[in-house]
Fold:
Amino acid sequence: MDLALAIPVFVLGLAFGSFLNVCVYRLPLDLSVVRPGSACPNCKQAIKFYDNIPVLSWIFLGGRCRNCKEPISPRYVAVELLTGALFLLCYAAFGWSLAAVKYCAFAFLLVGLIFTDAETHLLPDKMTLPGLMLGILFSLFVPVNDLATQFLPGVVSVPVSSDISWRLLSLADSVLGAAVGAAFIYGAGAIYLRARGVEGMGFGDVKLMAMVGAFLGMKLTILTIFTASIAGSLFGLWTVLVVWLKRTRRRIERHHEPANEARKHGWASAQIALRRHQMPFGVFLGSMAMLACFMGDRFLRWYWRLM
Ligand SMILES: [Zn+2]
Structure:
Protein backbone atom coordinates (compact mmCIF):
# COMPACT_ATOMS: atom_id res chain seq x y z
CA MET A 1 0.00 0.00 0.00
CA ASP A 2 1.36 3.36 -1.06
CA LEU A 3 0.96 5.97 1.69
CA ALA A 4 0.91 8.80 -0.85
CA LEU A 5 -2.23 7.20 -2.32
CA ALA A 6 -3.69 5.87 0.93
CA ILE A 7 -4.27 9.34 2.39
CA PRO A 8 -6.20 10.69 -0.64
CA VAL A 9 -8.23 7.45 -0.75
CA PHE A 10 -9.16 7.91 2.93
CA VAL A 11 -10.08 11.58 2.39
CA LEU A 12 -12.17 10.59 -0.63
CA GLY A 13 -13.96 8.08 1.60
CA LEU A 14 -14.66 10.81 4.17
CA ALA A 15 -16.16 13.01 1.44
CA PHE A 16 -18.34 10.18 0.15
CA GLY A 17 -19.37 9.46 3.75
CA SER A 18 -20.36 13.10 4.13
CA PHE A 19 -22.59 12.76 1.06
CA LEU A 20 -24.02 9.52 2.48
CA ASN A 21 -25.18 11.42 5.56
CA VAL A 22 -27.28 13.61 3.28
CA CYS A 23 -28.70 10.46 1.63
CA VAL A 24 -29.50 8.80 4.98
CA TYR A 25 -31.45 11.87 6.05
CA ARG A 26 -33.15 12.80 2.77
CA LEU A 27 -33.87 9.61 0.79
CA PRO A 28 -36.43 8.21 3.27
CA LEU A 29 -38.21 11.59 3.13
CA ASP A 30 -38.19 11.47 -0.69
CA LEU A 31 -36.14 14.70 -0.88
CA SER A 32 -33.49 15.54 -3.47
CA VAL A 33 -29.96 14.72 -2.34
CA VAL A 34 -28.50 17.45 -4.56
CA ARG A 35 -30.57 20.53 -3.88
CA PRO A 36 -30.79 22.54 -1.71
CA GLY A 37 -27.38 22.47 0.02
CA SER A 38 -27.00 21.06 3.51
CA ALA A 39 -28.99 22.71 6.27
CA CYS A 40 -29.32 22.11 9.99
CA PRO A 41 -32.25 19.71 10.53
CA ASN A 42 -33.27 21.73 13.59
CA CYS A 43 -33.05 25.45 12.68
CA LYS A 44 -32.93 24.99 8.86
CA GLN A 45 -30.01 27.42 8.64
CA ALA A 46 -27.86 26.65 5.59
CA ILE A 47 -24.50 25.12 6.55
CA LYS A 48 -21.48 27.10 5.32
CA PHE A 49 -18.85 25.17 3.35
CA TYR A 50 -16.28 25.67 6.13
CA ASP A 51 -18.68 24.08 8.61
CA ASN A 52 -19.22 21.13 6.29
CA ILE A 53 -15.74 19.60 6.33
CA PRO A 54 -15.99 15.89 7.22
CA VAL A 55 -15.11 15.03 10.84
CA LEU A 56 -13.08 18.23 11.45
CA SER A 57 -16.08 20.61 11.47
CA TRP A 58 -17.93 18.36 13.87
CA ILE A 59 -14.96 18.43 16.26
CA PHE A 60 -14.38 22.21 15.96
CA LEU A 61 -18.05 22.96 16.56
CA GLY A 62 -18.12 20.66 19.58
CA GLY A 63 -20.77 18.48 17.91
CA ARG A 64 -23.30 21.34 17.81
CA CYS A 65 -24.92 23.52 15.14
CA ARG A 66 -23.11 26.90 14.91
CA ASN A 67 -26.43 28.73 14.73
CA CYS A 68 -28.86 27.06 17.14
CA LYS A 69 -26.39 25.01 19.23
CA GLU A 70 -28.55 21.90 18.82
CA PRO A 71 -26.38 18.75 19.14
CA ILE A 72 -25.50 17.13 15.81
CA SER A 73 -25.87 13.36 15.87
CA PRO A 74 -22.55 11.47 16.24
CA ARG A 75 -23.93 9.35 13.37
CA TYR A 76 -22.55 11.99 10.98
CA VAL A 77 -18.98 11.42 12.12
CA ALA A 78 -19.46 7.66 12.40
CA VAL A 79 -20.65 7.38 8.78
CA GLU A 80 -17.79 9.55 7.51
CA LEU A 81 -15.09 7.66 9.41
CA LEU A 82 -16.55 4.27 8.53
CA THR A 83 -16.75 5.09 4.82
CA GLY A 84 -13.19 6.46 4.91
CA ALA A 85 -11.92 3.34 6.68
CA LEU A 86 -13.71 1.01 4.24
CA PHE A 87 -12.34 2.85 1.20
CA LEU A 88 -8.88 2.47 2.70
CA LEU A 89 -9.49 -1.23 3.33
CA CYS A 90 -10.64 -1.73 -0.29
CA TYR A 91 -7.49 -0.04 -1.52
CA ALA A 92 -5.34 -2.16 0.84
CA ALA A 93 -7.06 -5.38 -0.26
CA PHE A 94 -7.39 -4.80 -4.00
CA GLY A 95 -4.69 -2.27 -4.78
CA TRP A 96 -4.99 0.46 -7.38
CA SER A 97 -7.52 -1.40 -9.54
CA LEU A 98 -11.03 -1.49 -10.89
CA ALA A 99 -11.79 -4.15 -8.26
CA ALA A 100 -11.04 -1.57 -5.54
CA VAL A 101 -13.47 0.86 -7.22
CA LYS A 102 -16.15 -1.85 -7.33
CA TYR A 103 -15.80 -2.69 -3.65
CA CYS A 104 -15.65 0.98 -2.65
CA ALA A 105 -18.99 1.45 -4.43
CA PHE A 106 -20.34 -1.63 -2.64
CA ALA A 107 -19.13 -0.35 0.75
CA PHE A 108 -20.62 3.09 0.05
CA LEU A 109 -24.05 1.59 -0.72
CA LEU A 110 -23.97 -0.77 2.26
CA VAL A 111 -23.01 1.89 4.82
CA GLY A 112 -25.83 4.10 3.53
CA LEU A 113 -28.36 1.28 3.66
CA ILE A 114 -27.27 0.01 7.10
CA PHE A 115 -27.60 3.44 8.72
CA THR A 116 -30.86 4.28 6.93
CA ASP A 117 -32.38 0.97 8.04
CA ALA A 118 -31.18 1.47 11.62
CA GLU A 119 -32.69 4.97 11.82
CA THR A 120 -35.86 4.71 9.76
CA HIS A 121 -36.46 0.98 9.17
CA LEU A 122 -36.43 1.75 5.46
CA LEU A 123 -34.16 0.59 2.65
CA PRO A 124 -34.74 3.17 -0.10
CA ASP A 125 -35.18 1.88 -3.68
CA LYS A 126 -33.01 4.79 -4.79
CA MET A 127 -30.03 2.98 -3.25
CA THR A 128 -30.87 -0.71 -3.71
CA LEU A 129 -32.04 -0.67 -7.35
CA PRO A 130 -29.17 1.38 -8.84
CA GLY A 131 -26.93 -0.77 -6.62
CA LEU A 132 -28.33 -3.93 -8.21
CA MET A 133 -27.68 -2.54 -11.70
CA LEU A 134 -24.18 -1.43 -10.74
CA GLY A 135 -23.35 -4.85 -9.29
CA ILE A 136 -24.41 -6.61 -12.48
CA LEU A 137 -22.53 -4.10 -14.64
CA PHE A 138 -19.33 -4.46 -12.58
CA SER A 139 -19.47 -8.25 -13.00
CA LEU A 140 -18.56 -7.74 -16.66
CA PHE A 141 -15.30 -6.01 -15.72
CA VAL A 142 -14.33 -7.45 -12.33
CA PRO A 143 -14.80 -11.23 -12.17
CA VAL A 144 -17.36 -12.28 -9.55
CA ASN A 145 -17.24 -15.88 -10.40
CA ASP A 146 -15.75 -18.80 -8.85
CA LEU A 147 -18.95 -20.44 -9.97
CA ALA A 148 -17.13 -22.65 -12.45
CA THR A 149 -14.39 -23.68 -10.06
CA GLN A 150 -16.44 -23.99 -6.89
CA PHE A 151 -19.70 -25.54 -7.93
CA LEU A 152 -19.06 -27.27 -11.20
CA PRO A 153 -15.48 -28.49 -11.10
CA GLY A 154 -14.80 -30.44 -14.23
CA VAL A 155 -18.27 -29.91 -15.62
CA VAL A 156 -17.50 -26.61 -17.24
CA SER A 157 -14.06 -26.29 -18.68
CA VAL A 158 -13.32 -22.68 -19.42
CA PRO A 159 -10.22 -21.80 -21.30
CA VAL A 160 -8.69 -19.20 -19.00
CA SER A 161 -7.49 -17.16 -21.92
CA SER A 162 -10.97 -16.79 -23.30
CA ASP A 163 -11.99 -13.27 -22.43
CA ILE A 164 -15.64 -13.67 -23.31
CA SER A 165 -16.25 -16.79 -21.27
CA TRP A 166 -15.02 -15.37 -17.97
CA ARG A 167 -17.21 -12.34 -18.50
CA LEU A 168 -20.22 -14.52 -19.23
CA LEU A 169 -19.60 -16.72 -16.20
CA SER A 170 -19.05 -13.69 -14.01
CA LEU A 171 -22.29 -12.14 -15.28
CA ALA A 172 -24.14 -15.42 -14.69
CA ASP A 173 -22.83 -15.62 -11.12
CA SER A 174 -23.86 -12.03 -10.49
CA VAL A 175 -27.39 -12.49 -11.85
CA LEU A 176 -27.74 -15.84 -10.10
CA GLY A 177 -26.48 -14.31 -6.84
CA ALA A 178 -29.09 -11.56 -7.12
CA ALA A 179 -31.87 -14.08 -7.82
CA VAL A 180 -30.84 -16.43 -5.01
CA GLY A 181 -30.44 -13.58 -2.51
CA ALA A 182 -33.84 -12.09 -3.33
CA ALA A 183 -35.60 -15.48 -3.41
CA PHE A 184 -34.16 -16.56 -0.06
CA ILE A 185 -35.29 -13.42 1.75
CA TYR A 186 -38.66 -13.41 0.01
CA GLY A 187 -39.23 -17.03 1.04
CA ALA A 188 -38.04 -16.48 4.61
CA GLY A 189 -40.28 -13.40 4.88
CA ALA A 190 -43.31 -15.38 3.69
CA ILE A 191 -42.64 -18.18 6.21
CA TYR A 192 -42.10 -15.67 9.02
CA LEU A 193 -45.36 -13.89 8.18
CA ARG A 194 -47.26 -17.19 8.26
CA ALA A 195 -45.67 -18.31 11.51
CA ARG A 196 -45.82 -15.13 13.56
CA GLY A 197 -48.49 -13.04 11.86
CA VAL A 198 -46.22 -10.01 11.62
CA GLU A 199 -43.96 -8.91 8.85
CA GLY A 200 -40.36 -9.68 9.79
CA MET A 201 -38.78 -8.81 6.49
CA GLY A 202 -40.02 -6.42 3.87
CA PHE A 203 -39.41 -5.93 0.18
CA GLY A 204 -36.57 -3.59 1.13
CA ASP A 205 -34.62 -6.58 2.45
CA VAL A 206 -35.41 -8.55 -0.72
CA LYS A 207 -33.99 -5.78 -2.91
CA LEU A 208 -31.02 -5.31 -0.58
CA MET A 209 -30.08 -8.98 -0.98
CA ALA A 210 -30.57 -8.81 -4.75
CA MET A 211 -28.00 -6.00 -4.73
CA VAL A 212 -25.62 -7.92 -2.46
CA GLY A 213 -25.98 -10.99 -4.69
CA ALA A 214 -25.13 -9.00 -7.80
CA PHE A 215 -21.91 -7.76 -6.19
CA LEU A 216 -20.78 -10.92 -4.41
CA GLY A 217 -22.13 -13.81 -6.48
CA MET A 218 -24.04 -16.82 -5.27
CA LYS A 219 -21.66 -18.43 -2.76
CA LEU A 220 -20.94 -15.37 -0.64
CA THR A 221 -24.61 -14.33 -0.81
CA ILE A 222 -25.65 -17.59 0.83
CA LEU A 223 -22.91 -17.11 3.43
CA THR A 224 -24.20 -13.56 4.07
CA ILE A 225 -27.77 -14.71 4.68
CA PHE A 226 -26.61 -17.55 6.90
CA THR A 227 -24.35 -15.43 9.12
CA ALA A 228 -26.85 -12.54 9.26
CA SER A 229 -29.55 -14.93 10.51
CA ILE A 230 -27.24 -16.13 13.29
CA ALA A 231 -26.20 -12.59 14.22
CA GLY A 232 -29.84 -11.40 14.15
CA SER A 233 -31.00 -14.29 16.34
CA LEU A 234 -28.22 -13.72 18.88
CA PHE A 235 -29.08 -10.03 18.99
CA GLY A 236 -32.78 -10.82 19.49
CA LEU A 237 -31.97 -13.29 22.27
CA TRP A 238 -29.68 -10.80 23.97
CA THR A 239 -32.38 -8.09 23.77
CA VAL A 240 -34.95 -10.38 25.40
CA LEU A 241 -32.55 -11.31 28.19
CA VAL A 242 -31.63 -7.69 28.92
CA VAL A 243 -35.27 -6.57 28.97
CA TRP A 244 -36.23 -9.54 31.13
CA LEU A 245 -33.51 -8.85 33.73
CA LYS A 246 -34.26 -5.12 33.82
CA ARG A 247 -38.01 -5.54 34.22
CA THR A 248 -37.59 -8.23 36.85
CA ARG A 249 -35.23 -6.09 38.91
CA ARG A 250 -37.54 -3.09 38.63
CA ARG A 251 -40.53 -5.13 39.81
CA ILE A 252 -38.62 -6.40 42.84
CA GLU A 253 -37.14 -3.02 43.78
CA ARG A 254 -40.04 -0.68 43.09
CA HIS A 255 -43.13 -2.82 43.47
CA HIS A 256 -41.68 -5.22 46.07
CA GLU A 257 -43.01 -8.20 44.15
CA PRO A 258 -41.78 -11.64 45.21
CA ALA A 259 -38.90 -12.73 42.98
CA ASN A 260 -40.88 -15.59 41.42
CA GLU A 261 -43.75 -13.36 40.36
CA ALA A 262 -41.40 -10.62 39.19
CA ARG A 263 -39.52 -13.07 36.95
CA LYS A 264 -42.75 -14.36 35.43
CA HIS A 265 -44.11 -10.86 34.74
CA GLY A 266 -40.73 -9.70 33.51
CA TRP A 267 -40.61 -12.57 31.01
CA ALA A 268 -44.07 -11.71 29.69
CA SER A 269 -43.16 -8.08 29.09
CA ALA A 270 -39.87 -9.05 27.44
CA GLN A 271 -41.89 -11.15 24.96
CA ILE A 272 -44.15 -8.20 24.22
CA ALA A 273 -41.16 -5.89 23.82
CA LEU A 274 -39.59 -8.27 21.29
CA ARG A 275 -42.78 -8.47 19.27
CA ARG A 276 -43.29 -4.69 19.27
CA HIS A 277 -39.72 -3.76 18.60
CA GLN A 278 -39.14 -4.58 14.97
CA MET A 279 -35.56 -5.55 14.33
CA PRO A 280 -33.96 -3.82 11.34
CA PHE A 281 -32.74 -7.01 9.68
CA GLY A 282 -31.13 -4.99 6.89
CA VAL A 283 -28.50 -3.86 9.41
CA PHE A 284 -27.40 -7.47 9.92
CA LEU A 285 -27.61 -8.39 6.23
CA GLY A 286 -25.59 -5.32 5.26
CA SER A 287 -22.91 -5.81 7.92
CA MET A 288 -22.47 -9.49 7.13
CA ALA A 289 -22.29 -8.73 3.39
CA MET A 290 -19.44 -6.34 4.14
CA LEU A 291 -17.66 -8.99 6.20
CA ALA A 292 -18.27 -11.65 3.52
CA CYS A 293 -16.80 -9.31 0.93
CA PHE A 294 -13.46 -9.09 2.75
CA MET A 295 -13.28 -12.38 4.66
CA GLY A 296 -15.86 -14.70 3.11
CA ASP A 297 -13.56 -16.63 0.81
CA ARG A 298 -10.95 -17.10 3.52
CA PHE A 299 -13.64 -18.22 5.98
CA LEU A 300 -15.11 -20.75 3.55
CA ARG A 301 -11.70 -22.19 2.69
CA TRP A 302 -11.00 -22.63 6.42
CA TYR A 303 -14.43 -24.18 6.90
CA TRP A 304 -14.04 -26.71 4.07
CA ARG A 305 -10.74 -27.78 5.53
CA LEU A 306 -12.46 -28.54 8.85
CA MET A 307 -15.07 -30.68 7.19
ZN1 LIG B 1 -29.20 24.61 13.81
Observations:
- The mean pLDDT is 87.
